[in-house]
Amino acid sequence: MTPPLPKPQAVLTNTDGARFDLGPATEGDVTLLFFGYTHCPDVCPLHMAHLASALKRLPAPVRDRIKLVFITTDTVRDDPKSLRAWLDHFDKRFIGLTGSEAEIAAAQSSAHVPQARQSGTTHAAFILAYTKDNLAHVIYPFGVTDVDWLHDLPQLVKEDWIAPPSWRPGAAR
After folding, report:
1. What is the chain's Cα-based Rg?
2. pLDDT digits 0-9 by tens, 90-100
3. Residue 138: left if φ>0, alpha if ψ -120 to 50, beta else—which one?
4. Which of 68, 4, 64 is nearest to 36 (CA)?
5. Mind listing the pLDDT tens digit for each residue in 102-140?
6. By the 8 A CB rule, do 51 and 90 touch?
7. CB 3.0–4.6 Å: which of 37, 67, 113, 158 could bond 74 by disulfide?
8. Are 50 and 56 spatial neighbours (Cβ–Cβ below 8 Å)?
9. What is the 3-state secondary structure (H, E, C) of the chain?
10. Is 9 helix (H, G, I), strand (E, B) or coil?
11. Are 63 and 36 contacting, i.e. CB atoms less than 8 angstroms apart?
């Protein structure tokens, strides 16, 4: 993407009930950010399954540098316990976040993601990939497979983007 998008500023609640500050908690790693919900019939489980499959097949030094952050858009049904149980079906390392409707809306806005509608059940179907520079250089649409992730994730981990100063978070545009 040109220009790349800065990692959103968001403090939400993780599945342990603790506050999770997205920026500091994912600093220095590849962060895959996805907004969805656990009762999604197709997009969310397929994205998660492909990512989980790819991550299991990557070497530990690569896998350990990747954080998948799933932010629910269904704040009514996706309490921390049900969110954790759903994510654990795919990968116990996946980070699940929730919050108030206002907090989720603010996180989506900060990430430049369209607001979910219909009680959070109509949502963006893409994953933002933030590299070590805390910028999203790539957006992965629905339909990306585990083979695609296997190819791209090691490259994202080793990539050292050199963004012009005007593209960096907090820079005047």
Report:
1. 15
2. 999 999 999 99
3. beta
4. 68
5. 999 999 999 999 988 877 678 889 999 999 999 999 999
6. yes
7. 37
8. no
9. CCCCEECCCCEEEECCCCEEEHHHHHCCCEEEEEEECCCCCCHHHHHHHHHHHHHHHCCHHHHCCEEEEEEECCCCCCCHHHHHHHHHCCCCCCEEEECCHHHHHHHHHHCCCCCCECCCCECCCCEEEECCCCEEEEEECCCCCHHHHHHHHHHHHHCCCCCCHHHCCCCCC
10. coil
11. no
133-170 b/e (C-beta count within 10 Å ≥ 16 → b): bbbbbbebeeebebeebbebbbebbeeeeebeeebeee
Question: Counting every residue, how long is the chain?
Answer: 173
Mind listing the domains of the chain with CATH numbers? 12-160 (3.40.30.10)
The per-type count for the chain, helices as H runs and strands as E runs, is 6, 8
